[in-house]
Structure formats: C-alpha cells, structure tokens
Amino acid sequence: xxxxxxxxxxxxxxxxxxxxxxxxxxxxxxxxxxxxxxxxxxxxxxxxxxxxxxxxxxxxxxxxxxxxxxxxxxxxxxxxxxxxxxxxxxxxxxxxxxxxxxxxxxxxxxxxxxxxxxxxxxxxxxxxxxxxxxxxxxxxxxxxxxxxxxxxxxxxxxxxxxxxxxxxxxxxxxxxxxxxxxxxxxxxxxxxxxxxxxxxxxxxxxxxxxxxxxxxxxxxxxxxxxxxxxxxxxxxxxxxxxxxxxxxxxxxxxxxxxxxxxxxxxxxxxxxx
Length: 273
Fold this sequence. Notes:
By secondary structure, this protein is α/β, with parallel strands linked by helices. 45% of the residues lie in helices and 16% in strands. The chain has twelve helices and ten strands. The strands form two sheets. Strands 4-3-1-2-9-10 form a six-stranded parallel beta sheet, sandwiched between helices. It has a four-stranded parallel beta sheet with strand order 6-5-7-8, sandwiched between helices. Helix 12 links the parallel strand 9 (238-242) and strand 10 (265-266). The chain starts with 8 loop residues before the first strand and ends in a 7-residue tail after the last strand.
C-alpha cells in the first residue's frame, strides 16, 4: 500500500490517557499532523473482555483510516496487549503499539534483570509485558501488578494528594520487596504520576514511560520506512475526536497534553456502513 507522507498519524485510546502518547509523538515529530480518537463513551477498556477490546479496537482503527491517516498508533496498553495481531492482519497500513517499545526499553535499562510492571487488570491478565520482556531476555524476572485505582485518581486530577501517595505505596511496596531496579508504567495515564511514583520507589529505580518509548519507536520506524513528511516546516496540528463528553475531554486535554489542539468533535462508533 502506497501511503502519502503528508497524511497525518492516527492515534487512538479508550479515553484521554492516550494524550500522553500524543504529547510524546508531537515532541518527537513536531511537524507531523496528528488525528486523535478517544473512545470516551466506552472507557475503560481495561475492565472489558478480550473479545470486546478487539472489536472496539477494530472500530477505532477503521475510524482513523476514514480520516486518511498513514499510520495508526495504539496508545492503549490494553488494546496493544490483546488486539495488535488482529489489527495488523485486518488493516493494510503500519500499526504500532506501546508494549513492544516499553519491553525493549525495560530490558535495556535494567541492571539486575528484575523488572516490575504496573498496568490495568486486563493488560496484566494478557501477560503481554512478561512475554515481550522474556522474549528479549530469558533470564529476566518480571513482577507484574494490577493497579485499578490509579486511572480514576489521575482523571480526578489527584496526582499529588495523600490518598494517591498511599495507594501507590500499597501497590508498589510488594514490587520493591522483589528488588526491582526498573519499573514499566504500563498504562498511558501513569506518566502523569511519575513524580509521585518516584517519591515511592526512590532514585535508583528506572521508570519506563510507555508513552515516551512508543513515540521514539514510532519515529524510528516511520523514518526507516520513509513515511515522515520531510517537506513541512510548520508545526503539526492535533485534531481530536471523542465518542462522548466533548466538554470534559477539552477540560482534561490541557492536563494530559499540555498543547493546543483543534476543537474536539464528537463521533459515533461503529461507523455506519
């Protein structure tokens, strides 16, 4: 499939957390236009069955293809864990997830080969991070923890409240007892908790931001496949779509993205026809 380098990059997530990926992609590729889809009507994906996650992911990808994107970034760890092979088989354009880049970075950064992963319950159940890490270092020890309370705390804006610090301490203490030296933030909401997480784990544990590693991976692959727009000099624009709660999305976008966007537009999924 011949793709136009001037087309935008599509990014989707179950809600607003994927804006942390959009932010990192914009930093890595500042002249590329982005189309963002947040499936806010059906969030969270992290508590859904794998079959439902796959169906939603196909509908999200189909919508982005209708927006004439040249590549799709699956900003959701849950979708990356369960649906990526299906998306790659079904759609004829480059599709990137967040788990492989995160796993690669964890293996590169660990010194004692003891790696912790925090994620949603569905991502944990998939064992995707463990598989990807062990495929790159069979001697690594991977300790995974589901952290279901973190997403609502972030969406409430409680990044530094005492309750958040207490929850993080409860979730992370068992991993620290395992002597991890690297921690993968396996949900796109979690980068907003980096400061609070750092306060719990201390200075010696490397934090792997799955949004940051995904953006770096995307940049390298698009450059290798000559899909980057080499002619554009203006800053790229970000065009957001949501399936519900436009006003809430715009209110929270500044927290997650920290960049101006075009006004968000509401869409219905699945697409008719």
